[in-house]
Amino acid sequence: MNIEKEFLKIHSDSFEAFPDERDYVGIYKTLKEKFDREIHPEIKTKILEIEKDGYYNDHGVDHIKMVIDRASKLLNNLTPLSTKEKEVFFISPYEIFILLMSINLHDTGHLIGSRKEHASKGKQLLSKFDSGDLLSRSEKLIIGKIAQAHSGKNDPIGQLEAEMYVSHKSIRPQLLAAILRLADELAEDKTRASKFLLDIDQMIPSSEIFHRYSESLDSLNINHEEIKIEFYIEQQLTQKKFPKFAKDQFLIDEIYERTLKTFTESLYCNRFLPERGRLTTVKVKIHFFDKENNDDVIDPISYTIKESGYPSFPFEDIYKLCPDLVNNKVHMDGKFFLEKIGSIVKPKEYEESI
């Protein structure tokens, strides 16, 4: 079930769940329309202006939809099998409103700040954006703080309150921020890639690896304690490195880094989630295929990221965490697949990269 669709179905008979029994469904519709019309379409353009080293995937309307979808999956994962209909998402209708507003706000700071500043700048934009004072001062403040916590390593969620009252209604900022942050981390798949630019080979070189990562991510599923992710990599893409900041990187190594980050983010957000909704394992499967023949080039590889033994942090060595990625004491990294798949076929267009 999708939290936004269900929220929009709330009837006026249930408005007692909101402060002063106001029509928060109508308020959300009004603000959401403004976000979709005036804010989200501009973010892509602004990122191109402020990021000289490339464009890091879609941050517009479709990204917001995906974050809402992932937040819905996380909340569905929290919900016990037997529950009252009104508690189907584990959080109250008012908390859903706060969460949806925070999701819509979380990337808007790109319009008035750099990538590093964008998380903190969003709350400034909200004050200017809600010129009609549809939101109270306290609502703007907490929505801004929850949105800001989607990024950063200085324990931004831990700095929020576990529970507080806004207009006499109880909300749980840490829980909502954890759902937003993890949903944003999981909001990735092939729909975020600029497929047309990749197909015509007109992608900014420094951006390509981010789009190739998205393009290769076919499916993501959340089931109890597990996050399952499946990737499909075209054989030719194993035969080159892509520029990434000050280094060049194989796509397979980018997948290792990003899935390890997903695991790390999950562990961080687990601190603020109920026990039954904590995600402790990331299972990954990677397929290598020949686009022309529509067939596997080699057998897929699978690995599972989870804690074992005495914990160490941060997790920097995926090969220690995932023994399945070690073959006869050799790391199955980008260079490994460069040689393994390259021995089967070496496309001429990539020979200079080998």
Provide a descriptive summary of the structure in words.
The protein has 354 residues and is of the alpha+beta class. The chain folds into two domains: 3-185, Hypothetical protein af1432 (Orthogonal Bundle); 190-353, no CATH class. The protein is built from twelve helices and ten strands. It has helices spanning 3-8, 24-50, 61-78, 93-105, 118-129, 137-148, 173-186, 195-199, 205-216, 251-270, 318-321, 334-342; strands at residues 164-166, 169-171, 217-223, 226-234, 242-244, 247-249, 281-290, 295-305, 326-327, 330-331. The protein has a four-stranded mixed β-sheet. A hairpin with a 2-residue loop joins strand 5 (242-244) and strand 6 (247-249). Helix 6 packs across helix 7. The chain is globular.
Q: How far is the N terminus from the C terminus?
A: 47 Å
Using the 3D structure, state the CATH architecture of the largest domain: Orthogonal Bundle
CATH topology of the largest domain: Hypothetical protein af1432
- Trace the largest sheet across and list its strands: 3-4-7-8
The helix-strand sequence is HHHHHHEEHHHEEEEHEEHEEH
Mean pLDDT across residues: 86
Query: Could you say which structural class the secondary elements and strand pairing correspond to?
Result: alpha+beta
Number of helices: 12
Low-pLDDT stretches: 81-88, 348-354
Q: Report on the biggest sheet.
A: 4 strands, mixed
- Tell me the number of strands: 10
Q: What is Rg? A: 22 Å
The overall number of domains is: 2
Global geometry: globular
Q: What is the CATH top level name of the largest domain?
A: Mainly Alpha
How much beta, percentage-wise? 5-15%
Helix content: 40-55%
